[in-house]
Specification:
heterodimer; A: 424 residues; alpha/beta; 10-stranded mixed beta sheet; 4-stranded antiparallel beta sheet; 29% helix; globular; disordered C terminus; B: 345 residues; mainly alpha; binds adenosine-5'-triphosphate; binds iron/sulfur cluster; binds magnesium ion
Chain lengths: 424, 345
């Protein structure tokens, strides 16, 4: 059938891979070793814009991160910040047009997903990278039995017969904690509750043991007890299979326990990225601070008032000049309003897109009180990265660009330093 | 499912009674004495006329079948409600009465005419399903392509053309123009449905009337198919299917089509019911010996038993077809299939 292939697409399966073409198509990509110097997934300065009647929607505007096997990345941000669109761009699920890749790349095991042909992407989707979608109520096809839908990835990627696929679907369903799975697989989505549909979606995503599992707000539709169960379930799967998880949520609390790395997104842009420790104990971006102050703490001795972030996220069509957070940032200066902040990266890969990210005096006293950055006592190693720099996490393997400093006397990046002098 | 069907069948009863009462009342509001219609221009001998009044249940009779008279010596007219009961009683026994003008029972007339209407409807519905669904699919799959533009253009024109006018155009072109141009070597029949003495094999007579009858609905079917498929392709579950690694062809034919077909099937089914009720315009334009033309003729001649019998039949056919559509709908859509029994409680 000719539908699958896009016209004029150069089909070169060997592009970007040092491996021999013989392996290609015989072995799944996930069975191949990760080439030296690469991560499991590298998202490098990814830009994806929607070209609509009303203008260009800058939905993904310079996202960078790396992910390794066994790791969990939490993606946090307000509604409309581009979390889902980023994930769908990686999986090639965005219709182009209206979407268009405006720059950057996505490397999976060293291979560019963006340069793959539609046919190759079909072998990756559901097999190497699987996704659980945000709304379980509409994500299942209403006219097919749940079991058939869960078993479908097995039929296309593993060549299962219809019967074997349904049998396996029943096993998967009981694995995700649905009782009477043998009967349940024969039911239709409308006979499942929201929580059960979400589990069915998880079962479907796990069917082919994906290398990377993208879970887009997998628990938003569920009540708290089920939320915890589902998250536990995904962690258990991860322990068994060693896969990576990208957990998208607008709730920092959800990722607090399970994420190794966290990316905070604002208006299509990752404003801060780092390990969970970095984000929770050493946050350096004012938006992250705002997010942390606006989540209720689950275990807390004293009652602290919640401070919502004032105002609304900007339109992705007409982003404010300078820092996109500046209209809402309590610390915004003229510099913020006029110049887009660069990515300031610490040697451990922790980065922030704020002019004052590397200024301990700025961070000190402004970060949430329970964080280390509040007291400004963190030893720092500072690098200054030019705009459009290589993938953040790879900075480690690039000696020479790192400037080590000790104590709180962090050496400021030249831009940040000069900016500060100019403003204050 | 069975309880659902039985429940629907029971629902037929009040609808059926309602429709027949209205019709029965209407025919008696319209002026004109049926017996003079039967007689036509001639004056009937009084004995014959009396007999006709009795056989058509218009006047009261005693136990011996002799007409009753009131004190003035006039016939006693049978009240309307009583005539309705007699009519319904006969109907339940499969007797639709006698035609005033044709000298046949209504049953005989419809036994003769209905096969032509059914044949035409089946042919037209096949055209509608195959061409309409096919064109809609191509148009949606190759959206914004030349094909899409062509289909959109043709359907826009077709929905705007009245069926009888299209029929006349076809008659002009295929029946008259082509015949002249080819010196009678090639043309299509434009009247009647053939027969033993006809110059063409029977099926040839179906071509033009079937196209005429199907044209507008085919255009609608194509439009519904196109818009439904495009709408379904935007649904979340299509994205899920794509995320599993399915090819576009599989997504369209395995995941989208069944969902998109649900409204199309409903439309085609209801349209089939309408066609089975006799396409009065098409049948008249093509002199088609079907029930539509017959009912039209009966109305102009006030041959009430045919009108009543015809409409009664149509009501039954439409109700049965609608039931069949709903049942097939349930097979396509499990939400309805399993929702139905719950309605019972
Ligand atoms: N097909 C599209 N055409 C135009 N704009 C789009 C399209 N899809 C998404 N967008 C826009 O992209 C932006 C990012 O949307 P996205 O769904 O990624 O947000 P999100 O961070 O997942 O939010 P939420 O928490 O509500 O799920 C939104 O402003 C949305 O309006
Ligand atoms: S760059 Fe300025 S406006 Fe933007 S987050 Fe930093 S301080 Fe706030
Ligand atoms: Mg989302």
């Amino acid at each position: 059938m000719a539908f699958g292939k896009k016209k004029g697409e150069a089909k070169d399966p060997l592009a970007n891979t040092p491996l021999s073409g013989i392996l290609d198509g015989i072995t799944d990509l996930k069975e191949q070793p990760i080439p030296e110097g690469h991560h499991l997934l590298e998202v490098d300065d990814l830009h994806m814009f929607f070209h609509t009647k009303d203008g260009v929607v800058k939905a993904v505007n310079g996202v960078s991160y790396t992910l390794d096997r066994g790791e969990t990345l939490g993606v946090v941000g307000e509604s409309g910040s581009g979390k889902s669109v980023t994930a769908m761009t990686i999986m090639g699920l965005i219709d182009m047009p209206p979407g268009k890749i405006e720059g950057g790349d996505v490397l999976y095991r060293g291979k560019s997903l963006l340069k793959m042909s539609e046919r190759e992407m079909q072998t990756v989707r559901g097999n190497d990278i699987a996704m659980i979608f945000q709304d379980p109520m509409t994500a299942l096809n209403p006219v097919y039995r749940v079991g058939d839908q869960i078993g479908e990835p097995l039929r296309i990627h593993r060549g299962y017969s219809k019967k074997d696929a349904v049998d396996r679907a029943a096993e998967l369903l009981s694995m995700v904690g649905i009782p009477n799975a043998e009967q349940r697989v024969r039911e239709y989505p409308h006979e499942f509750s929201g929580g059960m549909r979400q589990r069915a979606m998880i079962a479907m995503a796990l069917a082919c043991d994906p290398d990377i599992l993208i879970a887009d707000e997998p628990t938003t539709a569920l009540d708290v007890t089920i939320q915890a169960q589902i998250i536990e379930l995904m962690q258990k799967m991860q322990e068994q299979n060693g896969n990576a998880i990208i957990m998208i949520t607008h709730d920092l609390g959800v990722v607090a326990d399970i994420a190794d790395k966290i990316m905070v997104m604002y208006a299509g842009n990752p404003v801060e990225f780092g390990t969970a420790d970095d984000i929770f104990y050493n946050p350096i971006h004012p938006y992250t601070w705002g997010l942390m102050r606006s989540i209720p703490e689950q275990v807390t001795d004293e009652k602290k008032p919640l401070t919502p972030i004032k105002g609304n996220p900007p339109s992705l069509v007409t982003l404010p000049k300078g820092c996109s957070f500046s209209p809402r940032c309590p610390y915004a200066t003229d510099l913020c309003r006029n110049e887009v902040p660069k990515t300031y990266t610490l040697p451990d890969g922790h980065y922030s897109k704020c002019h004052y990210a590397l200024d301990p005096d700025f961070v000190k006293g402004r970060a949430p009180e329970n964080s280390r950055s509040y007291s400004g006592g963190t030893p720092r190693v500072v690098i200054d990265e030019p705009a459009g720099a290589p993938v953040a996490g790879m900075a480690k393997s690039e000696p020479g660009t790192v400037t080590a400093v000790d104590g709180a006397l962090a050496q400021k990046a030249p831009e940040a330093a000069s900016a500060e002098e100019g403003e204050e | 499912m069975l309880t659902y069907i039985i429940k629907r069948l029971i629902q037929f009863i009040p609808v059926f009674i309602g429709v027949t009462i209205i019709l029965f009342a209407l025919q008696n509001i319209v002026p004109g004495d049926p017996i003079s219609i039967i007689g036509g221009d001639r004056a009937l001998p009084p004995a014959v006329e009396e007999q006709l009044r009795i056989s058509n249940h218009l006047i009261e009779v005693d136990e011996n079948g002799e007409p009753l008279h009131d004190e003035n010596g006039n016939y006693v007219e049978t009240p309307l409600w009583k005539r309705y009961l007699i009519y319904m009683n006969n109907l339940l026994h499969g007797d639709l009465g006698n035609s005033y003008t044709r000298g046949m029972t209504v049953n005989e007339i419809f036994a003769q005419k209905y096969p032509y209407t059914i044949g035409l409807a089946v042919t037209a519905i096949c055209i509608e399903a195959v061409v309409g669904i096919g064109a809609g699919l191509i148009s949606a799959i190759k959206r914004y392509s030349v094909w899409d533009v062509i289909v959109t253009l043709i359907t826009s024109i077709l929905v705007a053309i009245p069926a009888f006018w299209l029929g006349m155009l076809l008659q002009l072109f295929f029946g008259i123009f082509l015949r002249q141009v080819t010196n009678g070597a090639f043309y299509l029949p434009i009247s009647g449905a053939g027969g033993k003495m006809a110059e063409f094999p029977g099926w040839v007579y179906y071509i033009l009337p079937a196209i005429t009858l199907a044209a507008v609905s085919t255009a609608y079917t194509a439009r519904i198919m196109r818009s439904q498929l495009l709408e379904v392709m935007n649904q979340d579950y299509i994205r899920t299917a794509k995320a599993k690694g399915l090819s576009r062809g599989k997504i369209i034919f395995h995941h989208a089509l069944k969902n998109a077909l649900i409204p199309v099937v409903t439309y085609i089914g209801i349209d089939f019911g309408a066609m089975l009720s006799g396409a009065i315009l098409t049948e008249t334009v093509f002199n088609w010996p079907g029930v539509g033309y017959e009912i039209y003729r009966a109305i102009t001649q006030r041959d009430w038993p045919i009108v009543m019998g015809g409409v009664t039949l149509i009501v039954i056919v439409v109700m049965v077809i609608n039931l069949v559509v709903d049942v097939s709908y349930a097979f396509l859509d499990p939400r309805i299939r399993f929702g139905a029994p719950k309605d019972q409680s």
